[in-house]
Design a protein that fits this description.
With 335 residues, the chain is α/β, with parallel strands linked by helices. Helix content is 34%, strand content 24%. The chain has an eight-stranded mixed sheet with strand order 8-9-10-7-11-12-13-14, covered by helices on one side. Strand 2, helix 2 and strand 3 form a beta-alpha-beta unit. It is globular, with a radius of gyration of 20 Å. The relative contact order is 0.16.
Length: 335
């Protein structure tokens, strides 16, 4: 690939706008946004005008057929990730796909297999894994700064008022707290400990069968445990903590895009670790965009920061949680 990575954006919602703004604001990134697609031409044109994008398409098929597009950013709801990412991969495009990666582990495996068969780059847009402070934390844990991990705690929840027709209560759209919010605590725990050996969970379900408030307990043969929670009916702290045999690391509110964390060790004063001043006005998605640019220019087919096997493992855990709490999606029935 040449020195410029040409992006196509598939979908025009809020997360697509945030990502595109970050990508365009990155200096000397070697990236440009050349096309956008929506299910309606009007929405695509409005998005293109907003961000100064040259081409706007009223269908996904037109975007993936565009020869000037190198990589497609999938920003649809997760219920459409399999279809959208699959369409892009079938057309020979590299893909960055929002999280949760797919509706279930089967769909995720299908995408990974397709990318590998076609020799294409595929990455879940787990921006947390690309954040410099999260990377610093994992290095410290790996170097034994807090000893052997014993517990991980993390939660993500907000109190919302969602009617029965809202997508967050629609099983056909993967509705509920787990795939929208719970994916963050689960991914955080598995970044540090890998796929769990045991999964327990309980939840409050809506009349439609979507999880409104979910608690998760994960266990590993090492003796480590993770206590995780997510909610769309309760305003949680959205913090995280990693406790080891020699210390503890605490992340304040917004653990999935942190500006600092605090290291606690016996005999030492608490130490605040910061990433330093970052680019003004950016959300944090620039780090995952930069990783995709780096990988594509290097010819890599997947990222070591967000490995595909890790994304598959997270999807298996989310499936196991849904099995425990009794949440089924129509997509689960399609083989």
């Amino acid at each position: 690939m040449s020195g410029t990575v040409r992006w196509g954006v598939l979908a025009t919602g809020g997360i697509a706008a945030t990502f595109t703004a970050d990508l365009l604001a990155m200096k000397d990134s070697g990236a440009e946004v050349v096309a956008v697609a929506s299910r309606t031409e009007a929405s695509a044109k409005a998005f293109a005008e907003r961000f100064g994008i040259e081409r706007a398409y009223g269908s996904w098929a037109e975007l993936v057929a565009d020869d000037t597009v190198d990589v497609v950013y999938i920003a649809t709801p997760h219920s459409a990730h399999r279809e959208a990412a699959g369409l892009a991969l079938e057309a020979g495009k590299h893909v960055l796909c929002e999280k949760a990666f797919t509706i279930n582990a089967r769909e995720a495996r299908e995408l990974v297999d397709l990318a590998r068969e076609r020799g294409l780059f595929l990455m879940e847009a787990m921006w947390t894994y690309c954040n410099p402070l999260i990377r610093r934390m994992t290095e410290m844990v790996r170097d034994g700064v807090i000893g052997e991990i014993r517990t991980v705690q993390a939660d993500f929840g907000f109190a919302g008022t969602f009617g029965a027709d809202h997508r967050l209560r629609d099983p056909a759209l993967g509705g509920g707290a787990l795939l929208d919010l719970g994916v963050y605590p689960v991914s955080f725990a598995q970044l540090l400990l890998g796929e769990p050996d045991r999964v327990q969970a309980d939840a409050l379900l809506s009349p439609e069968g979507a999880d409104l408030n979910t608690g998760i307990l994960l266990g590993w043969e090492s003796g480590a445990t993770a206590l995780l929670a997510c909610s769309i009916v309760g305003d949680m702290q959205t913090t995280a903590s990693v406790t080891g045999t020699k210390g503890r690391i605490d992340f304040p509110q917004g653990f999935f895009f942190p500006e600092h964390f605090i290291l606690h060790r016996p005999g030492h004063e608490p130490e605040t670790i910061t990433s330093g001043p970052g680019p003004q006005g950016l959300s944090g998605m620039q780090y995952e965009a930069a990783e995709v640019n780096r990988a594509l220019l290097a010819g890599d087919k997947e990222s070591p920061l967000v490995p595909l096997e890790g994304s598959l493992a997270v999807m298996r855990t989310l499936d196991a949680v849904r099995d425990r709490i009794g949440v089924r999606y129509p997509a689960d029935e399609r083989a």
